[in-house]
Specification:
Elements: E1 5-8, E2 14-18, E3 23-28, E4 33-39, E5 44-49, E6 56-60, E7 65-68
Length: about 70
Amino acid sequence: MISPNVAIAPDGQLLASGSDDRFIKIWDLKIKQEIGSFYDAGPVWAIAITPDGQTFVSNSSWGGIEVWC
C-alpha cells in the first residue's frame, strides 16, 4: 500500500492529495471542501503544484508523469 502524497500551493489555499486509489483530489483549504478530482493511470507516488497554483503534476506507478491543468 502506498502512503498518501500531498502538496500545498504556495499561497496556502489549495491542497492536492493522491494515493493508491489512483485519484488526485484538489481541496480548497479556505472552505475545507474537495473542489475537484482527477483519475491517474496508476497509484500516485508523488504530486506537486506549480508556484502559480494552476497546474498539478503527478507521478504514478506506471512510470509516467501527468500534467493536470
